[in-house]
Structures are given as C-alpha cells and as structure tokens.
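Researcher: Next entry in the queue.
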Amino acid sequence: MRRKTVLASVLAGVLVAGLSVVGADAAGRDDQVARAFEGTTRSTAWAQVARIPLRFPTYHPQGFALVGDLIFLSSVEVLEAPVRYPVPVDGYDRSPGKGIGHVFVLDRQGNLKKDIRVGEGTAYHPGGIDFDGENVWVPSAEYRPNSRAIVYKINPKNYRVTEEFRVRDHVGGVVRDRRTGLVHGVSWGSRTLYQWTASGKQLAAKANQSHLLDYQDCDYVSRSKQLCGGVTGLKTPTGGNFELGGLALLDLKDDNRILHEIPFPSYSAAGHSVTRNPVALEVDGSKLRLFTAPDDGEETAGTELLVFESPISG
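Model: Structure for this entry, 314 residues:
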C-alpha cells in the first residue's frame, strides 16, 4: 500500500510540474534546467522515482518533447527492416525498408491521447523532437545514412502537421533556437551538425566535435543551448555489446561547443542505457527531473516511461 501511495505522490508532483510551465517564461524556466544540469557530475545520485508502462503499441521510440502536462513521443514502426547491400547501391549502404512514422501524445501517467502520423514514402523514421514554445518540431528521414529527410512542425493545440522544409541527408533530430529562430539538426549518428533557417536554407554543416556520444534526442534549454542525450555502442572482451549513455549541454551559438557532459549509469529492463533514445529534463523545486523511454515495444517489459530525479546542488 505504501508503494502505491509513494508512486501516486510522484505522479502528482510530475503532473503539477508539467502544468506549472504553461504560460511561464520559457527562457527563465530553461535557464533553471541548464544551471541545474551544469551542477551535476558523474557522481550525482539519481533516484528512479517512477516506472510507468505504456500500454499501447510503441514500436521504436525516438524523441520526447514536454508540452505543459503532455508528452509528445516520436516513434518509428518498422514494417520491413532495411537490408545492407554487399556493395553500395546508388551511394546507399542499405535498402530503405518500409515503415510508418508516429508522434504519440501522452499524459503524464502514460495514457495515449493522440497518434499523429508523419513522414512520406521511404522517409518514415521520425527522430529527436523539440518544442519551441509554440510548435513541436519533428524530422522524418529515411532509415539509412546519407539519405533524405522532411522537417515538420506540429501544432500541439489542434495536432495539425505542417511540412517546413526538406534536407538531402538523414536528419536524426532537430532543435529550434528560441532566440534566433534557427533550426539545428544532427545527421545519422550525429556526426554532422546542421543549422538552417526556419524555412530550410542551410547555413552551416560542421563535423561534430564530440566522438564520445551519438546524440539521439535534444531539447532547447537556456539561451541558445541544447541539452542532448545519447549512447555509444561498444564491444566487450567477450564479444557482447555495451551501451555507454550520457547527457551533454551544447552551445548553439558557438558551433555546439560542449559546455558540460556526464555519463548516465542507469539501465532499463531490456538492458539499454536509459539515454538510448528519448530524453527530456525539467526542474521541479529543488529537483532536476529526467524522463526517458529507452526500450522498444516488443522488448522484455515493453516501453516504460522511466522518471529519475536528483537534488539540485548549491
């Protein structure tokens, strides 16, 4: 009985935190997240305070955006997996496969409110997403490197999807700078970092300075900064796989210079690093809160919304 009481209290706190941001000053709120994250270290104690099963088909989750008391979750439903070619064909290392792009809208208890479809033809793979205070920005790309992508925005009030621009590369995630209006994106494995105008004019394409993490999902925080989660897959001496996960704060106005980064030492029911795909952070009073959903729908326990908290230092 006590466990149920504690969980209900946590969920209530999460819901209140989500509602409190509506109509709040976005820059001030995001400054709190950036400052709180910069106070973390690799020794910071993170407590898992909630594990919420998502009881609908979730497929392969990709990105989170917190919009008031709602959570937008992008995911790819793979109908036919891409197959690697023996030798490249027309510059591609694999077939495009087939699939459906989803953006799910959830409440903070994990209940599905809406299933929004995105993508076109072979560009069915949504990536990391971001809320700019008015719209949720979503890329949908082919499920292979050096391909193509479409960048959409979704109105969170009426769920209308609008195509904004197209890119001749795989775009794995986007963030919109609330100060400049520019859109920033990452390529396959985040090896190239892009910058576009809101209408899609490319302003920059530069190599990622970090070789530690492949950024999977990023959110705008503070003044021209983004906070990204990601993983690096490593081989163990026994031939197994190990996921090194972490979080990084990047300066958008200074070529995505790394301002602060930490490893994240928690794993999911399926054994994934919890920063494998969707991540989102917020501040609630004296706590820094992290939302993740690392597991696919068909894995051990299905997709679970995992919530972690750490005390804010200083």
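Model: The longest strand covers residues 70-80.
Researcher: Noted, moving on.
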